[in-house]
Amino acid sequence: MSAALDLFTIVAVAAGAFFFLAGTVGLLRFPDVFTHLHALSKADNLGLGLVVLGLLPQASGLLAGLKLISIWLIVLLVGATVSQMIARAARRAGPHA
Amino acid sequence: MIAALNWGIALLVLGLAIWTIVARDTFAAIVGFVAYGLLLTLAWVALRGVDVALTEAAIGGGLTGVLLIRAAAKLRRTEAASNAEHPGVPTRVAAALVAACVTAALAVAVLALPDPAPTLAPETAANIAATGVGNPITAVLLAFRAMDTLLEAIVVLFALIGVWSLAPDRLWGGHPGPRHQADPNGVLAFLARLLPPIGIIVGVYIFWIGADLPGGKFQGATILAAMWLLAMMAGLADTPPVSRTWLRLALIAGPVVFIAIGAAGVAFAGAFLGYPDGLAKPLIKVIEWALLPSLAVMLALIMAGAPERTAR
């Protein structure tokens, strides 16, 4: 059972790391602010979500697991808000900013 | 595996430090500095200094970053002129020499440390029971080296007075910083309504857990200050005029309680900041509870800046 949980952790965290890698490549390769934000939000939402999901079986108890999940939820909330604000500022500044 | 991670963090920290210095654009350099602070946090975690890591993340990465961005925004008007100046070769050589000498002196000092390094950790571990506190960092900060912590809190207060003293005479006593305007139905106002209740709980939790686990008043106060700043930036709350009596009392309450308990130690425990037997933990708790709101107000107002508008 514990070997299966460890395997689950490895697969999920590796998948999360892949999304962070893909997000970073997107940030470097995509042409403008809006597509940069698109790439970053994938890393934050899916990447961190998968890392948290993978770490849940390793958490020392229910409370630690809830803390991990709440970290993900707070990052989702703040990440979405900041993306909106950056996108609005970029739209106001015009296409060449 | 862990060694490879540690090497990776060390190389990234060094690379980012160099990049931060080399970057020509001030804003880019600040972003580099904040990322550097976050990497340094990872380095402290790798060294198992979780208390230091929390402080670095909150103050080194977060708070200092905001302070630097504000400073950069104020300097923007004069930045082009200062970037156009090119120091002559002698100035550059002299600067490089001084910097190289400082680096060499630091390297020699670190490499000359005896191995194993001198440590007071065993004495701390042996005497921690006398304080009744479970977290050795808190025991050092508030019992064995309480004087340092007292002076630290007062230094933050002095920093705030320094920021305030930048106000012109006619604005003295007014509201610090600009009045922020934001769409009351926009995303920022939404976040500023949703996040503070969560942030206040997290801040108080990090403060509360500090007695036995990594955490403490500085880290907790930074989070509380950040929540207040969020409400200010979203236009939901205004900064209080610096002439308000309640504000002045809130600022000095923490240091005053700390000094009073320290002075009482002279009478009851035979030394300034000495705690009578059995009362160490309750007194430490009182000091921490008194310092938390004072520090939160100090840090938030340092961020808010000098008075810019007359009090209504």
Mean pLDDT of chain B: 87
Enumerate the strands of the largest sheet of chain B in spatial order, edge to edge or round the barrel.
Answer: 1-2
Coarse morphology of chain B = globular
Rounded mean pLDDT score of chain A? 88
Structure report:
The complex is a heterodimer of chains A (97) and B (312). Helices cover 86% and strands 0% of the residues of chain A. Chain A is mainly α and 97 residues long. In chain A, 13% of the residues are buried. The radius of gyration of chain A is 16 Å and the shape is elongated. In chain A, helix 2 runs antiparallel to helix 3 (62-93). Chain A has helices at residues 2-29, 33-55, 62-93. Chain A has one domain. Chain B is mainly α and 312 residues long. Chain B has a domain at 123-312. Chain B is built from 11 helices and 2 strands. Chain B has a two-stranded antiparallel ribbon. In chain B, helix 1 runs antiparallel to helix 2. Chain B is globular and about 65 Å long. At the A-B interface, helix 3 of A face helix 8 of B.
List strands and helices in order, with pairings.
The complex is a heterodimer of chains A (97) and B (312).
Chain A: H1 2-29, H2 33-55, H3 62-93
Chain B: H1 2-22, H2 26-46, H3 50-84, H4 89-111, H5 121-131, H6 136-144, H7 146-164, E1 175-176, H8 187-209, H9 217-233, H10 245-268, H11 280-304, E2 307-309
Antiparallel strand pairs in B: 1-2
Keywords, separated by commas or semicolons:
heterodimer; A: 97 residues; mainly alpha; 3 helices; B: 312 residues; 11 helices; globular
